[in-house]
Amino acid sequence: MIDVYAYGTGNGFRACIAMAECELEHNVHKVDLAKGDNTTPEFLKMNPLGSIPVIVDHDGPDGKSLSISQSASIVLYAAEKSGRFLPSSGEARTLALQWLMFNASDIAGTNNAIFMATMRAPEKVPAVIEFFEERLYGLFGDVDERLDEVEYLAGDISVADLALYPFVALRKSLLEGREPLTNLLRWVDVMAGRPGVAKGMAAFS
Amino acid sequence: MIELYACNTSNGQRGAVMLAEAGLAFNTHILNLKAGEHKTPEFRKINPVGAVPVIIDPDGPDGKPLTLAQTGAICLYVAEKTGQFLPQNMRTRFIAFQYFMQAMSDVVLYSGAYAFSLMRFPEPNVASTKVFKDPLLEHMGYFDQRLADVEFLAGEISIADIALYPAVNQRWGLIEELGGLSNLNRWRKMMAARPGITRGMQAVA
Predict the structure, then answer these.
(1) pTM for the whole thing?
(2) What is the DSSP code (8-state) at residue B155?
(3) Residues of A in contact with B124 (CB under 8 A)
(4) Taking the CB of residue B188, how many other CB atoms lie within 10 A of it?
(5) Looking at CA atoms only, how far is residue B145 from chain A in angstroms?
(6) Distance, in angstroms, between B24 CA and closest chain A CA?
(7) Could you tell me the residue range of the domain that residue B131 belongs to?
(8) pLDDT digits (tens, 9 = 90+) for A130-186
(9) ipTM score here?
(10) Same domain, B43 and B119
């Protein structure tokens, strides 16, 4: 059994989707960031950084409990534990990891910069927000180009798709009123129709 | 022989340091980003997204040549190819992934976004730099705490240390403002003294 401590952010949904898609037995515990649930002594004992998601796998490596944070490493953990969504070798594995890292560094990073600039800045600076929104739209454009050639980021569905989905779903408004990224939208529909993705996205509903 | 296309940014340094630390022979091609050398049609043939670093390994997976972008993916690829910097013990390996992802997503984000706000707003803009600089330093403080207990982030040296080092080196001036991050400083000096780090940093300098 895996305990998942998360909230309805891109990173939080990432963990929930990974658990559901890999069909790992898990319980989701809501850590309400708006209420500061991530700053309680209990939570900080689990993750001193106070960030979500965190998982505790009571049946970790060597049969002992393991706690890890960082959404992308949680996705990797779920994939390696279940033997799914990540080929064990070859070019397909390299491609899946390349697009996983694109999502972990570029997409999630830019998304979080928008969050910080809009929600956390004591004073909003429109030029800063606009810069990061344009950058995120540009990155979505890169994904769209890629999805013109292949059905999923690495060819077959992989950790990369699981890690990207919630960030596109939560920033859909960014795609409105612009040149439609038709390949990306097609992929969003396919992903949204997956029971595991739907279950992960409904974790806090 | 691996070809590395990079410039003297922290991501370029990560690629070079990873190759050097793994003991792989490589040729470095330095791109001048200011002159737009990463956006030329020739370079876009190598990486359609026009970002560095990129490596070309003539002896890639399945014995075929591989072109690989994304700093984090290059680190993972080189580690798996050479069987180095990824702990054998699965528990330690996932701890390494966790710190690696923290470096590749949170640290890269805040460090980059901080540099951007400074560039865009040469007049000190407390509001926008604060939301990037403070979290960056918070992460550094967290690494410092971790390094009080262990020599390297995952206990043994791993891709996590290699991914973090260029950012610590680049932002050391800022980090020093905090004073007293003595564990991080010890680690920084130990890393800097490694021949692979020296060779990698020099390759893109």
Answers:
(1) 0.96
(2) B
(3) none
(4) 18
(5) 10
(6) 18
(7) 90-194
(8) 999 999 999 999 999 999 999 999 999 999 999 999 999 999 999 999 999 999 999
(9) 0.96
(10) no
